[in-house]
Amino acid sequence: MLYISVPLGKLVRRVSRLRGGGSALPGLVVEKIDPGFMRRTLSTLPLGVAVVSGTNGKTTTTKMVVELLESQGLKVFTNRTGSNFTRGVAAALLGEVDWRGRLDADVAVLELDEAHAVHFVNQVPPRYCLLLNVLRDQLDRFGEIDKTAELLQHIAAKTTGTVVLNREDPRVARIADTLKTDTVTTVPGGGPDVRYFGLDDSLLSTFPNDDEMRAAPGSPVPPAPPRPPADVVLRRVGADDADFEYDGAMVTTGMKLRGVYNIFNAAAALTLARVIAARGTAGQGLASEGKPAADSAGLLKALANVAPAFGRGESLVVDGLPLELVLVKNPSGFRLGLKSFPAAGYATMVAINDNYADGRDMSWLWDVEFDTLRDGGVDQLTGSRAYDMALRLQYDDVAVGAVDPEIAPALAAFIRGGQGKPKRIFCTYTAMLAIRRELSKITTVEVVS
Amino acid sequence: MTPDSPDTPHGLSFGHELPPEDSAAPGKGTIRVLQLYPRDMNIYGDWGNALVLAQRLRWHGYTPELLEYNVGDDFPANIDLVVGGGGQDSGQLVIQDDLLSRETTLKAMAEDGTPMLVICGLYQLFGKFFKTRTGSVIPGIGVLDVETHGTDERLIGNVAVSSPEFGTVLGYENHSGQTTLGPGVAPLGTTAKGTGNNSSDGQEGARYRNIVASYLHGSLLPKNPAVADFLIKTAVERKYGSFTPGTPDDSYAVLAREHAARRPR
Ligand SMILES: [Zn+2]
Questions:
Q1: How confident is the model at residue A444 (pLDDT cuts 50, 70, 90)?
Q2: Cα–Cα distance between B166 and B233 in angstroms, integer?
Q3: How many CB pairs under 8 A join A and B?
Q4: What contacts B24, CB < 8 A, 6 or more positions away?
Q5: Within the 26-55 window of chain B, which residues sit less than 8 Å (CB to CB) from chain A?
Q6: What's the pLDDT score for residue A26?
Q7: Rounded to the nearest whole angstrom, what is the distance from the C-alpha of residue B212 to the centroid of ligand 1?
């Protein structure tokens, strides 16, 4: 059957592209004239839909899952443009379907913002979901983290096949208790199957969640509480490699990704990709639950080659010297960023904006400790809340070089004054976008990873 | 550090540590600052308020002793200054019974003039009661003549308050409980931007004896050194008779205030 909505939606998409408009308008049009479009199109996929949600790391994790599945020969549809809301998915679909509305893919892997994911799963129940974490972020939008956890729980409840949960985030792990599950086989009507990804006990302390963040430094680490077995466990993180354990064996793989939190999310991506690929590669749904038939070597090779998603932390070369952009948008992320990227030998800049996409509430800066920057100080501060950051650093006795809320001159001064040192910029989301724009104006930017 | 001795500054608020003291400057005296329930009521950067009190005490030449009180702890004696923060609904449930068991102690300290800063969740629980949307009543300790009613409306955004005592007070609010003041307390001020206590009367916070109560976090004290210094001065005068201020450098605070005041709601 030919739906008029698809050609029309594609036309709107083309026109709005020509006019330089946003990606959501065509999605809005198709939603209005054909509300069943998304569900109908996605329900044709043989391996169904996987939703990735959580506070931190959605974009990079989604990218990893996609690349891992592609390494298994699967055709994957994803919302690559970062339009992580329902309308954005509809718009992305319009770009991929043919004029008859057919989508040439085996599976869809979609990154969805927590609140939008709820709307999405009400329309399209996913076969899989991957729930990463619930952290203090955008509290000004969702109110409270317990509310955010409820949003994720709703996504899990709507999932028909497998729910993949972060074993180490209590608010996420607890979601399992709310599902009627059988962890070995999916009993019809018995709720989704639950899988976990997890961390070695030795790494738990490097991943404070918002509750454990409060454990006093230097106090003895309490023994980890008993936790369910995980499909994939991150055992060790090296300078450019990592150890993962699954199927009872330990594997070491090189990693292009930097930052322990990214590598933990690699364990998340691996867990989900193995579940999906197990069904796909055996073909015709022959693979049995719990016996992943995925090609492990192929998955690891793909994992080793995953680079961070655009705008999520990047290594660049500017004037022949490395420059790293580290995205920070909540206290856990900032703490992990400071921990993952030691300050010694680097010139440091911090760029804090409080635009809507960053979150307007600045209180989170007071939940981060900046003592690791005390030795070298911070060379440059910028962004609309540069002086809030200066004040924060003053109270942690961290010396501040220059402060300029305007990003362009601050960035130019930072690069000029770098004294041959490699540089690192911690920045909020909109500050990162502005910095990327400015960098491409003043210098040739070479993206390393 | 022994976590259970009430006289030892332990834990320094959950992963947060005071920067090391620069020099062994001859102190003008020690001020014991108690954080109330930092484990369960610490959302929205409440550590910032404790850190600012401790650091400014140093900058004024005094030695801060930072203590904390959590559910089930012994209540430390000889406290000069109290600071308490906000929490999620779940955090408030955890501390509720314990707080009620400390009602007599906290009331006596408040009536005696101990300076206190209570933000958001503890502001509500320092009042007479919190009535939830579903009609259940959570009793408060009644230090403040205020009552709070849960609503479906969440009041979120930047706030500027005109305070007769402290000038403009800047911060950020995020609450769905709406508080009304009784005759026993005065408002901290009136809102020039944002909502404050409730969506109808344009008042923000409460003042009673030496207590400052407010919905503003963000955190409140860093960008409002006048409030921080009121609490410090009051604590020092009560303990030592007079307060000799130091010269903290507030130039970043002044600039942060100017920029914050210009930001959208
Ligand atoms: Zn609050």
A1: low
A2: 14
A3: 126
A4: none
A5: 38-39, 42-48, 51-52, 55
A6: 63
A7: 15
| Surface-to-core class of residue A416, CB atoms within 10 Å of its CB (0-12 exposed, 13-18 middle, 19+ buried) | exposed
Active site residue B120: yes
Residue A399 C-beta-side C-alpha neighbours within 13 Å: 6
Q: Give the nearest partner residue to A366 out of B47, B55, B174, using CB atoms.
A: B47
A298 touches chain B (CB under 8 A): no
Cα angle A446, A262, A62 (rounded to 5 degrees) comes to: 85
d(CA B160, CA A404): 24
DSSP state of B43: B
3-state secondary structure (DSSP) of residue A51? strand
Per-residue pLDDT of A355-364, as tens digits, reads: 988 888 889 9
pLDDT confidence of residue A81: 53
Centroid of ligand 1 to alpha carbon of B85 (angstroms): 8
Q: Which amino acid is at A223?
A: P
CA angle A134/B10/B232 to nearest 5° reads 95
How do strand B206-208 and strand B211-214 relate by DSSP bridges? antiparallel
- Tell me the residue ranges of DSSP E strands in B37-128: 63-69, 81-84, 116-119
Token pair for A136: 């203090």
Tokens in use for A322? 């490395």
CA–CA separation, A356 and A365 (whole Å):
16
- Determine contact, residues A414/A324, Cβ cutoff 8 Å: no
pTM (two decimals): 0.71
Nearest CA in chain B to A404: B255
The Cα A167–Cα A169 span in angstroms is 6
The A residues from 185 to 224 touching B (CB cutoff 8 Å) are 208, 213-219
Q: Does B17 touch chain A (CB under 8 A)?
A: yes
- Which domains, ranges and CATH numbers included, belong to chain A? 45-218+227-304 (3.40.1190.10), 312-439 (3.90.190.20)
Closest CA to A300 of A241, A353, A345, A238: A241
Phi-psi region of A222 (alpha: psi -120 to 50; beta: other; left: phi over 0): beta
The yes-or-no verdict on residue A263 having pLDDT over 60 is yes
Which ipTM was obtained for this model?
0.92
Report the 10 Å Cβ neighbour count for A415: 20
- Rounded to the nearest angstrom, the distance between the alpha carbon of B79 and the centre of ligand 1 is 25
Tokens 């006596």 map to which residue? B108
**Helix pair angle (A296-305, A58-71), 10° resolution:** 140
| Cβ within 8 Å, pair B174-A391 | no
Taking the CB of residue A22, how many other CB atoms lie within 10 A of it? 16
pLDDT tens for chain B, 265 residues: list them. 233 333 333 334 455 778 887 665 668 999 999 999 988 888 778 899 999 999 999 999 999 999 999 999 999 999 999 999 887 777 778 899 999 999 999 999 999 999 999 999 999 999 999 998 888 898 999 999 999 999 988 899 999 999 999 999 999 999 989 999 999 999 999 999 999 999 999 999 999 999 999 999 878 999 999 999 999 999 999 999 999 999 999 999 999 999 999 998 8
Give the H/E segment covering residue A432: helix A429-442
Tell me which DSSP letter residue A127 carries. S
